[in-house]
Amino acid sequence: MKYRSVIFDLDETLAESKQPMSEKMAGVFALLLSRVPVAVISGGKFSIMLAHVANRLPEGTATDNLYILPTCGAALYEYKNESWHAVYEETLSDIDMEVIERGIERAVTKTELIDLRTPSHGERIERRGSQVTLSALGQTAPLSEKVLWDPERTKRTLLHATLSEELPQFSVKTGGTTSFDITKPGIDKAYGVTKFSEHVGIPVSEMLYVGDALFPGGNDAVVIETGISTYAVTRPDETYSLIEELLTT
Ligand SMILES: [Mg+2]
């Protein structure tokens, strides 16, 4: 194989948005794990990534080769001696999370884009340890509603700018179609890629990054600055074909 390691985004790359990996994908993903170390990086929290990736893998998979970077790379987990361990975790203090929540409230009031008093699908603001996530319609909103919220990306652009103004001491990232992830400064997918590379001792230049949002402003685009080779997909079936192709080389 041309690459000594592969890093994947999760939502819309390995699986449909907020869905577990399909059985078909889990099959080729497991074959890739038998060849090289593989990492998955997402804005999601660790428990969800376990459910959507690790727990989908067939029995006998080389899970020791799997690395999970939840919350945009704010943490890295590895599977050793039959259990998951944190390699690092950049957790936010309770005070930080409080400050972030107040900043979110100011930003949504200022932009008038989200009324926090109206009902939502699950929590709109969720504390995920190393990150606070704002979901415009709530954590569990159906995809059919989410895609209609901001088809032109204008709301996300405005809210991202306002959140960044209100919370200059933190890093604000646009997540999926309706969400924003706020972490300690300097934490993003590029940070995660660099930390993973250091941990496994494989230079970034010998790795491949696969994601659906590598376009300017997309939530995978920051990894380009690390010098990693990238492969852009638009749907999980393109990722499936890429993995099949990698396996033949
Ligand atoms: Mg994605």
Query: Which structural category fits the helices and strands?
Result: alpha/beta
- As for the number of domains, it is 2
Number of helices: 7
Ligand list: magnesium ion
Unreliable residue stretches: none
3D structure, described in words:
There is one protein chain. By secondary structure, the protein is of the alpha/beta class. It has 2 domains: 5-90 and 187-248, HAD superfamily/HAD-like (Rossmann fold, 3-Layer(aba) Sandwich); 94-183, Eukaryotic phosphomannomutase, cap domain (Hypothetical Protein, Haloacid Dehalogenase-like Hydrolase, Chain: A, domain 2). Helices cover 33% and strands 20% of the residues. It has 7 helices and 11 strands. The chain has helices at 23-33, 46-52, 94-111, 143-149, 154-166, 189-200, 236-248, and strands spanning 5-9, 38-41, 66-69, 75-80, 83-89, 125-127, 132-135, 171-174, 179-183, 207-211, 229-232. The protein has a 7-stranded mixed sheet with strand order 5-4-3-2-1-10-11, with helices on both faces. Helix 3 crosses helix 5. The termini are close together. The model has no long low-confidence stretch (mean pLDDT 95). The site of magnesium ion (MG) has 7 residues, from loops.
Offer a quick outline of the entry.
The chain is of the alpha/beta class and 249 residues long.
